[in-house]
Structure formats: structure tokens, C-alpha cells
Amino acid sequence: MNLILIEPEELGHDNTARLTDGRAAHLRDVLKVVPGDEVRIGLVDGNRGTAVVHDMAHDAVVLTCRLTEPAPPRPSVDLLLALPRPKVLRRLFAQCTALGVNRIMLTNAARVERHYFDTHVLTRDCYRPLLIEGLQQARDTRLPIVSVHRQFRVLVEDLLDEWTAPATRVVAQPGHGERMHTLIQDAGHSRVLLAVGPEGGWNDFERSLLESRGFAPISMGTRALRSDTACVALLALAHDALESRTQRMHTTALHAS
Amino acid sequence: MNLILIEPEELGHDNTARLTDGRAAHLRDVLKVVPGDEVRIGLVDGNRGTAVVHDMAHDAVVLTCRLTEPAPPRPSVDLLLALPRPKVLRRLFAQCTALGVNRIMLTNAARVERHYFDTHVLTRDCYRPLLIEGLQQARDTRLPIVSVHRQFRVLVEDLLDEWTAPATRVVAQPGHGERMHTLIQDAGHSRVLLAVGPEGGWNDFERSLLESRGFAPISMGTRALRSDTACVALLALAHDALESRTQRMHTTALHAS
Question: Which chain A residues contact residue B179 at CB under 8 A?
Fold first, then answer.
């Protein structure tokens, strides 16, 4: 926990927040704070700043908050992910959020097992704390937007263009396709929309539909990865390629001036 | 399981192997094979090939193996990893192996809890099946070499040069340093030695020692990642950068000829 996130409704008019849950335990037992100490905090979907430990009585920790740093920008990567097994999904929520993702669109696909949709991991009460965990790890405050889609075709044909800003669209395929860095470097967009298939891959229909909607196949080499490993690896590559692109554009601008 | 790995001692003189464990269950229940079917196989640290399902009686599956494809090359990335929590380590063994790693050197560091060394996850009986799982996922046969080091300084000063081939040495730091792609592209080496620190980071002594031994700091942006997420992300970046480097050298060679 590199940042303690506070919900807007927890923040009193006097800028104090009274924590009693895992965050209080973390402050007490891991960070071993005493009254007067300063800790890094953030407001869910809001500013970041610092808080002074005001009081520690019983199980509560009372913080006086100063949220003066503007909220970080929302991440420039959106994720279209074929719904993985509940156990994997549970792990991925925090990991994807830590790496930085603006939207997580969980979709059906031919090779997704139907019963995956019945898991309670898809309920907001279950996944929201996992998103918060990822944000607290990465010192971010911006909650990803999560949506669940039982109809792949409706998502790709009707919703994607409306829901996502213009972006380099890529779909990972084992073994063939361009490299992510090359594609993103040469593209006109400063955002990425990444499609990650189910364990057995997209089927031909799904692949063609994605390609017809501008998704370029990218390769991560010939090794077949489990979908959680692939997802973390691809998000890391997407962010890295976007940052390289920004750096290169800065350098070009400097040389031109 | 994209490849069934067979131990050398399981392979009879007549090239048959009789499986009774999880691999037999996978063949029967997931791949739903029947006698006469062909499956992809590999020999641990050896060749790859195909096998024909010869017999299925009781709980056993008997395969007739043809291991004619030479073993894949060993991965060109070595990993020096501050020993993570046992639960995280257990997960990382398979994930790192799937991404491709030649050596996994698990080391002590100031911010590694001493009791992490007592876990049974560090016993060969526990981690070897996890490495095999990663290999079967990635269709590789080359077992990573795992070693455990209670003395960081002895490892870095005395063993590293002997144990690892010349490589671009990089150490991940949140927030500052060059980008991995840039460093690897411009380097004379076709291998990477990657150092990943403990949850709280390397301390000053450890960082200086690594830098004095040629480890260049690289940045993955300002987001702080859990060590398992960081490890998967960095291995993916290292492989991607090495493959981009190889492609660029091919292109340069083509233009020069």
C-alpha cells in the first residue's frame, strides 16, 4: 500500500477521515504510524496529497487530510479481455489496475466457459476492493471502468467506437504479427486498445471481426502464455511503447526547435 | 498444457512412456484423447516431438514417442530476484518459466524477511513441478537453473561473472533511468541479466554494488508495482527488446548485403 485511498463519503467537512478497516491496520501494524506522522493519501477518483495522523483510539485511525495534488491523468490503455477463469480474474483485477488501465471490458468468446459468468468475482462488491488494492499499490486514484459483455459482436461492432477514444488497436496472437513497439511508435495515436483472447485463443470469426474493426495482430514470440501472464506482459509492453513514443516525440520536437 | 513433458527415466528403450499422474488425467479429461491420437510432447531438457496414444488402461496412458525436433535454445534472459514472499514465489516459478528464463537466482537483500528462506517452496520437490508447468505452457523443454543465495554480496561479487554469460545488465528502479528497449537495442550483447528487487526496493548499498557490477538502472515509469507484477512485466520487456534487437540486426544485415 503505497498510498491510502479514501472514499469521498469518508471525508468529513473538517477534512478528517476516520479509518477502521484494513487501511487502519496497515497504518498501525505495517507503517507503524504514531499521531503526528504524515502519510500519502488519495481520494478515490480524485486528488492526491498527504494526511497527518490525528488520533489513534481503539481500532480507528483518524487522519487530517490535505488533498492538494491534482488527480493523475487516466491511463491511456483500454483492455478488451475474454473473460478468464474466476481465480485468474480475481488476480488480474489488481494487477491490471496497478499497471494502469482506463477500461476493462470483459467479454464472452467462443472459448470462454459459460459458467465463468456466474462468478461473484464479477460483482462490484467483489472486484471494487481489488481495483482499489491495485490503485493503492501504484499510487493512482483513478478507478478503472469495468463492464461485462455477454455478446462479443455487440461489444465490438456497436460499443467500442463509442466507449473508447481513438487508439492504436492491437490483438495479441502467438507467433505472428508485428511487434507492439513498432506498431505504436509509428501510429498517430497516443492511446492503445488491447484485445487479449481466451486461453485457447480467439476463433476465426472473432479474429476477423477484430481485424475488420482495426485491430492489428501483434506477436509476443512463439511461447504460449497463460492468459493472466499474457495480460500483464501485454499491458506492460503497451505502456512501455507509449512512453517510448512520447519520449521520441519530445526529442524530435527539441531537435526541430 | 500445450506440450506434455516426459522425464528421461520415463522413456523406455522401445520409446514408450507410461503416464499415470496429472498428465494422464489431462490427456484423458481435457484433451479427450483416444488410442491412435497424436499429441505434442517433449523430453525434459531434451528434444520435442509427437507421441501416439498407444494404450489407455485403468488410470494409465501409454505413449509411443518420436522426439525428432531438436531442443529449443535456452532462453537468453537470466533473473536475479530478491526472494519474494512464498505465496508470490510459488506463482512466479511457473510464470517466469513460461516467459523464458535461463537462470533464476533467488537472493537475500536488506528488505527480504529472513523467514522467507524457511519456506518449502524453495525445495526442489516443490518448485520443480512448477517449472515443468511453465515449460508445458510455453512448449519449452529447458528447465531453468534455480539457486538460492543467502549472501547478496557473495552472489554479486563472486558468482555472477562466472555463472552468467556476458549480457546487458539492468536493474529496475521506479521513476528514473533509461528505458529497457533503448539500453538493449544499443548494447553489444544478445543476452539480458535482470535484477528485480524486494517489495521495498534495494537499499543504497545493494544498488551501488549492482551498479558497480555494470547493472544499468532502467525505469518502468512512476507506478510502483508488486514484485510479482514487476517481474512478469520486466521479463516480457526484456524478451521483447531482445527480439526487436535481433530483427533490427537482420534488417541492417539485409540492407548492407
Answer: 240, 243-244, 247
Interchain contact, A244 vs B138, CB within 8 Å: no
Question: H or E stretch including A65?
Answer: strand A60-69
Minimal CA–CA distance to A96: which of A81, A117, A113? A81
A103-157 pLDDT tens trace: 999 999 999 999 999 999 999 999 999 999 999 999 999 999 999 999 999 999 9
pTM: 0.92
Domain with CATH 2.40.240.20 in chain A: 4-69
A123 to chain B, any CB pair closer than 8 A? The answer is no
Mean pLDDT on B34-53: 96
Residues of chain A with CATH 3.40.1280.10: 77-250
Q: Is B127 helix (H, G, I), strand (E, B) or coil?
A: helix
Cβ contacts of residue A242 below 8 Å, gap of 6+? A76, A77, A184, A190, A191, A192
Q: Would you say A230 and A191 are in contact if contact means Cβ atoms under 8 Å apart?
A: no
Q: What is the pLDDT of residues B149-182, one digit of tens each?
A: 999 999 999 999 999 999 999 998 766 678 888 8
Q: Which three cell numbers stand for residue A132?
A: 482499489
Q: Which residues of A touch B237 (CB under 8 A)?
A: 236-237, 240
Q: Which helix (H) or strand (E) holds B204?
A: helix B204-212
A232 → closest Cβ in B224, B229, B243: B229
Q: Kindly indicate whether the ipTM for this predicted assembly is greater than 0.85, answering yes or no.
A: yes
CA-to-CA distance for B80 and B108, rounded, in angstroms?
Answer: 10
> What are the φ and ψ backbone dihedral angles of B88, each rounded to 5 degrees?
-70, -40
Fold of A77-250: Alpha/beta knot (3.40.1280)
Q: Regarding the domain with residue range A4-69, which homologous superfamily does it belong to in the CATH classification?
A: Hypothetical PUA domain-like; domain 1 (2.40.240.20)
State the pLDDT at residue A248. 81
Q: Convert the pLDDT of each residue in A32-49 to its tens digit.
A: 999 999 999 999 999 999
